[in-house]
């Protein structure tokens, strides 16, 4: 698995585990498999993906060291035939690098990766004569196994009942479709919950699911589960105004250099997932995409006044960010002033159950210019 885990996971969750460099381990074990064990085919299954843009050779942004090493292993470790990848949430039907077949089946069971190897016997050893690779979408055309459905049915029934449980109301439809381009009430709900639960001055949130939607009318647990899809927990740090600005500048890398005539959607850097574009609440600011990276955050204010670099703030975020996930290294080592044992999703559900009504107007505290 990826050795990047200690960079974003809470330490108690990997206590006793040692994460070694995958490239060095592959160099150690593949020759052993080919030589002493006389393996005819060497297949690596890894929770890592492609670390660079194959068109340009540029490293994909936001990675921690050695987080993804599929390409390095394919290029630098002789004797590997096939690599099944994961981690990066990408559908990679078939890529061949240095004679090595690589494939990745998206995420959350949305695809199945299939590789067919055709072997021939030559001098009492089997060798690969041909191969094919593809990913198969798991859609309505794929029939479920009847026996497995029967085993899981009571658990599914209980889960569906919980997901369908109404917990509040919304006076308008809320969506996250444009949440990376403008302030939205649906993300402001998460911001509000994080700030209240953590007694924070500022909150940072990303859009995890652009298809998230809360319909006008009753709000269910399912709606909140679709909005906050990860099992992150709430952490509040003491940060300075300078650290907050650095975090927002890092987030602003989500947009490529400005080109007149291009829309903000056209300028999104496809190598950066939307879940690494953090948006702040509790401050006001403008994101000027016509400025160079590192100089894009303008008019950053806290409570109506320009935020000074030395201003101390209580910042609410999640455990993934605090541990450096998404390249937010400016948080590493920051003083933790509050840590929740509940997942943020649970905090949102509890908030809606208590307040019953979800605010439907965004605070409009940030915007993209020009």
Explain how this protein is built:
The chain has 370 residues and is of the alpha/beta class. It has two domains: 5-137, Metallo-dependent phosphatases (Purple Acid Phosphatase, chain A, domain 2), CATH 3.60.21; 168-369, 5'-Nucleotidase, C-terminal domain (5'-nucleotidase,  domain 2, Alpha-Beta Complex), CATH 3.90.780.10. Helices cover 23% and strands 29% of the residues. The protein contains eight helices and 20 strands. It has helices at residues 22-34, 70-76, 146-163, 185-198, 221-227, 241-251, 319-322, 344-355, and strands at residues 43-45, 82-85, 91-97, 100-105, 111-122, 125-137, 166-170, 174-175, 202-206, 213-214, 217-220, 233-240, 278-281, 284-288, 297-302, 305-306, 312-318, 336-343, 357-358, 366-369. Strands 13-9-17-12-18 form a five-stranded mixed β-sheet. A four-stranded mixed β-sheet has the order 1-2-4-3, covered by helices on one side. A four-stranded mixed β-sheet has the order 16-15-14-20, covered by helices on one side. The longest helix is centred in the middle third of the chain and has 18 residues, at 146-163. It starts with 21 loop residues before the first helix and ends with a strand.
The DSSP helix count reads 8
N-to-C order of helices and strands: HEHEEEEEHEEHEEEHEHEEEEEHEHEE
Structural class: alpha/beta
CATH T-level topology of the largest domain: 5'-nucleotidase,  domain 2
Estimate the mean pLDDT confidence.
95
Number of strands: 20
By CATH, the superfamily of the largest domain comes out as 5'-Nucleotidase, C-terminal domain
Q: Based on CA inertia axes, which overall geometry fits? A: globular
Distance between the terminal alpha carbons, to the nearest Å?
Answer: 42 Å
What is the CATH architecture descriptor of the largest domain? Answer: Alpha-Beta Complex
Strand fraction equals 25-35%
